[in-house]
Amino acid sequence: xxxxxxxxLAAFVIGLAMVxxxxxxxxxxxxxxxxxxxxxxxxxxxxxxxxxxxxHGLIHELGIVMAIGxxxxxVTLMPLPGMNGLAEQGGLIALVYxxxxxxxxxxxxxxxxxxxxxxxxxSRALTAMLAYDIPMVIVVFGVAFFYGSTSLVQIIDxxxxxxxxxxxxxxxxxxxxxGLFAMQAMLGKQPFEIYVAPAEIATGxxxxxxxxxxxxxxxxxxxxxxxxxxxxxLLFLGGxxxxxxxxxxxxxxxxIPMSIAFLFPRYRTEDVVRLVWKWPxxxxxxxxxxxxx
Amino acid sequence: MTELIKTPRTGETLPVKAGKxxxxxxxxxDELVRFAQSRSLFMLHYCTGCGAIELPPSMTSRFDMExxxxxxxxxxxxxxxxxxxxxxxxxxxxxxxxxxxxMGSPKYVIGICSCTVNGGMYWxxxxxxxxxxxxxxxxxxxxxxxxRPEAVIAGLRxxxxxxxxxxxxxxxxxxxxxxxxxxxxxxxxGETWQTPTDVIAEARHYGLxxxxxxxxxxxxLEQHQRPLEALEMKVDIPELMARR
Lengths: 293, 244
Ligand code: SF4
Hints:
CATH architecture of the domain at 29-169 in chain B: 3-Layer(aba) Sandwich
Number of strands of chain B: 7
CATH topology of the domain at 29-169 in chain B: Rossmann fold
Radius of gyration of chain B: 19 Å
Pfam families (chain A): NADHdh
Oligomer: heterodimer
Number of domains of chain A: 1
Strand content of chain B: 5-15%
Radius of gyration of chain A: 19 Å
Membrane topology (chain A): Multi-pass membrane protein
GO cellular component, one term (chain A): plasma membrane
Transmembrane segments (chain A): 6-22, 58-80, 92-114, 126-147, 167-187, 213-237, 243-264, 276-292
Shape of chain B: globular
Bound molecules: iron/sulfur cluster
Largest sheet of chain B: 5 strands, parallel
Strand content of chain A: under 5%
Structural class of chain A: mainly alpha
Protein name (chain A): Respiratory-chain NADH dehydrogenase subunit 1
Helix content of chain B: 25-40%
C-alpha cells in the first residue's frame, strides 16, 4: 500500500531532476549556463500559486487530472528496485494502456478551451500518438514474446539472471533501437515536436493553460520523462539491481533523446507518421522476425 | 493628440496592504510562493519596437536569462511579465492592452527603451502613444535607446528583488484605478473602446475594488458596452457550400 504512494513520489522527484537535466543539456548545447538546480520546482510552485486561475470548465480541469493520473497509474506498474507496486498484477498490457491515457486526457481538456491553436495542436498530438504507438506496441510485444511473459517482474528477473549478456539490449538490439526511436517520438522532442511548435501554433495544447493548469502539465512532463526512461530501462537494460544502477540507467536513457533533440528542427505531421511507421516499425518487425527464427 | 497631461499616478505609491489572497494555497505558503515567483518568471515579449533586438542576446548564450529562471513563453495565459520593447503605436497599444488584460495575475509590465518612457525620438509622431504607464501600470522602466542586454538583465534583477519583497504589485493598481487607465485609453481609441475582459468584475473578485475603480470613464464604457457574443460558426467558402 505504502508503495503506491512512494512510487509516484519517487517518479516525480526523479522526473524533476530529468526536466532539469533536459534544460541543462539544451543550455550546454547552446553554450549557455542553464537554469539553477531547483528551477523546475520553482516553476511548478509559482504556477500553482498564481492568483488568476482561468478555468474553461469542468472537463478542462478533469483533463489535466487525467493527464497526470494516467502517468501516476503507469508508474505504479513499473517495478523499482525493492518495490514492485502493482507490477505483478498489472503487466505490460495494462502499462501500454495507461501510457495512452494522458494524451487522451489532454485532448479532452484542450477541447474545452475552444482555442483553435489548441485544437490544431491536439489533433497533431493524437496523430503523432497514432504514429509512435505502432512501433511502441511492436517493441513491447516483441520483448514479451521473447521472454514468454507480459509480467515486468519476470522480464527483469530473466534479464538480471546472467548480467549484461542477458539484457534485452544485448539479446534484441534491433528492437532496442526501434524502441529508442519510438521513445523520441513519444517524448515529443524534436524532430517530432510539431504539436508544440511555439512559434507557429503558440505551444498548441498548452496555449490556453495558465496557472495551475500549466503547472499540472509541468508535473505531467516530469512523470512522462520518468515513465519513458523507466520503461526502456525495464525492457532492455535489465531494470535496476539497486537504486544506483537504476538511476544511472534511467538518466542515461533519457539523456539520449534530449541530446538529439536540440540539434534538430522539426518534421511536419505527415512526415512524422511516414517516418515513424517506416523506420522504427520496420526495424521492430525485423527484430521480431530474427527472434522467431 | 497625446500630450503629457498631469497624471496623478506617477511617483505616488499606494500603501501596500497585506490583503487576503484569493488562492488559498498562496495564503499558506506566502513567503515560499513569493520566492518561487521571483525565481521563475515567464515572459511574453511584445516586440514591436527596435529595442527588441537586444532581447535575443540577453536570452541566448552571451547573457543567458535562463540562469535567472526567466524564460520566454508564447501565450498571455502562461506569462508573468509583459515586455514592451520600444515605441508603441496607437494600433499596437490596443493589442498590448488586450494581451495585458488576458494575463494571469500577478503580472508585471516592463517598458524597455526610452520610447515607452516618454515617446523618445517619436515624441512628435502623431501615431505613437507616449507614456506606457498612462495605459497600464508599469513595474519597471529600462531606459536607453536601446538599453544593452546588461541593462535589461539589471532591470529584470531589480524586478525579481521587488517581487521577493512583495513590492511589485502594480498589477493591483490597474484594478484600483481602472477609471484612470480607461480614461487614457478612451482618449486615444475613442469612447466606444472596450475589451473582452470585465475588469470591474475582476477587481471585485480580487477584493481590489476601490473608490477609484469606477468613475466618469467607466460610466462612458457602460453606456457603449456591447455584451460579448460567441463567434458565429459559419463556412463561407462558395465551393464547399455548393457541394452541400
Ligand atoms: S528608444 Fe530608441 S531603440 Fe528603443 S524603440 Fe525608441 S527609437 Fe527604438
